[in-house]
Amino acid sequence: AVPLVVAINTSLAAQNGMLVRDRIAMEEARNVDTVVFDKTGTLTRGEQGVVGIAAVGGIDEDEALALTAAVEGDSEHMIARAVREAAEERGLAVPAVREFEAIKGRGVRATVDARRVLGPAGLSDGEASGDAERRSGAGRSVEGGGETVYVGGPNLLDQLDVEPAPELATFAAEAGADAQTVVYLVRGDEAVAAIALADVIREESRRAIQALHDMGVEVAMLTGDSEDVARAVAADLGIDTYFAEVLPEDKDEKIVELQERGRLVAMVGDGVNDAPALTRADIGIAIGSGTDVAVESADIVLVQNDPLDVVRLIELSRRSYRKMQ
Ligand code: ADP
Ligand code: MG
Known about the structure:
Helix content is 41%, strand content 26%. It has helices at residues 4-15, 23-28, 39-43, 61-71, 78-89, 128-136, 154-160, 166-177, 203-214, 227-237, 251-260, 275-280, 292-297, 308-322; strands spanning 18-20, 34-38, 49-55, 94-103, 107-119, 122-125, 147-152, 181-187, 190-198, 218-222, 241-243, 265-269, 283-287, 300-302. The chain starts with a helix and ends with a helix.
């Protein structure tokens, strides 16, 4: 039989928008001393928008944005959506691409067929991008022609061993200090543009972190985004520890690192990338419109997209299970 206090507890939880998939985790929640939040989509709204473009290497801002939107054409990432929207708002002709590939936690890659330009009126022959390609001349040619172009963040630059030109580095540093995510457009061996995207920090995040601190719980943040952005968001929200530029397959290792320091860790996230960390944490919490994978990896699902529910969850666990001892 289910002990009465547990039954009451899970129904109370349900009334508060918390789906308890593992009762033991709900009981353990009272002992959590460290909460790790995913950044994008959890602490922030995850509704990015393009706020700035810097272009070098012979293309202008519009050409850079159009080419970036082309490479992002098949990506479901929020960054991709924001870039495509910005290109559309400017009424740019977006070139057609082939051989699209997502590079997990780093960015995307595609082959751009310079001759075919997908404009507002559909497919047509375009000279503009053909000229751009001839000028750059550095494209890695592939079978059937075209140029391989990459879009991604610092993790992509690392992998490609590309160092941004000083002008782009300065742009990125300034954007990062404002907590803006920066992605680079890479042609040949060169970053030719950088695009800055702004997200909105949830007001509930600030209050949640304050409340957790008041309860004696430490707060950490885990993100695939840049060191600059992580530092800025952590400082803004008063977060104690952060892990930046973490590849999806390495996120769970950061949880282990904290556990090895003797921490009892709750992880809060929404994405496919967060699933291994949710599984690894002592308590995995999927939040809001979390992906199915995140939900399946979690012990507790918070129905609303509200970081304050993490506070309510720990409070509920503390209140309910204190009576049991
Ligand atoms: P997060 O930890 O913020 O959920 P991801 O693991 O999805 O992030 O991505 C980490 C980083 O990889 C992003 O901040 C970005 O720099 C880069 N990235 C991933 N996907 C894309 C994409 N489609 N376009 C551009 N950059 C991307
Ligand atoms: Mg996320």
